[in-house]
Amino acid sequence: MAISLKESRAISGLTDILYDFLPGSGHKIWKGHVNFGTVAAKVGVGEFWQSGSKKPAINALLSLTLERRRNLFENLILEIVRAGLAYRQKENRPITRAEIDSVNGHILELGFKFPELWDRDFRQSLDQTTAERARQHVSEADSHQRQQSLEQRRSEGLAQLKEWFLQLAAESDRNKAGLALEKLLNQLFELFDLKPRQPFRVTGEQIDGSFELDGETYLLESKWEKGRLSEADLLVFRGKIEGKSTFTRGVFIALNDITIEARDAITRGKAPSFFVMNGYDLLMVLSEGMTLTEFLQRRRRLLGEEGRVCVPFAELR
To answer: Which one of 25, 39, 141, 222 has the fewest beta carbons within 10 angstroms of its own beta carbon?
Structure first.
């Protein structure tokens, strides 16, 4: 099927861009020499390469392939670009991103879009020298290795904290367990780089601690009582938060959860300024069911969007 005038115009523009990608010809005895003719033969359209002037020959190669072997057109363009990358690099004239973008533009005019030429990493690499790309690869590999090492240390740290937590759960002296819990929590928040601050005192009140999440400071309180907490401790914590600033928020860790009456009391008549984390939530974080940072971010969002102080862990998945 003959190509349309629109396609002919696009082929003409594509010819202009690809002209400088490869030589038009080479001596037959030059072993391994790559040019438009050898690329055409490799793809299976060698009969469409015509000897003579280079520009008309390229135009004919593209036009005839599109007209008679349309299914090989993508292979032809990709092979020209692939061979051109090596040739132009050798000539110390690397193919640029602007040139590839021009190729993509003309191909779009033809009704095609070849994913390899739109690959983000490929197109970005054209803005760098070989040395720069090599340095970037080394940097990325180092970064990946550091990340893996960090994740491994964090995983090992969480395993140790989980074992410690389970030991504290069996501790008969609940006051001792509560004091140890503060140290455990401090180490947990340190593992996730949340800059925890240990218990401190301000005028008239004791604060169990605080941490930073996405640049914001949260007050932290923890209680490990035998049963569910009543509203009294929660109302005191709310008062501590409200006494600081209008944008201060907090997290109350009630290992054995809070009563239904307490949930109602801390939201009645006022927008909640903190949310509750229970023992199951903490155990899931220590078991790597979700990172501490992700847990806090999801709970913060539910607090802000729905005013929910208590949310079952399963609903966060």
So the answer is: 141
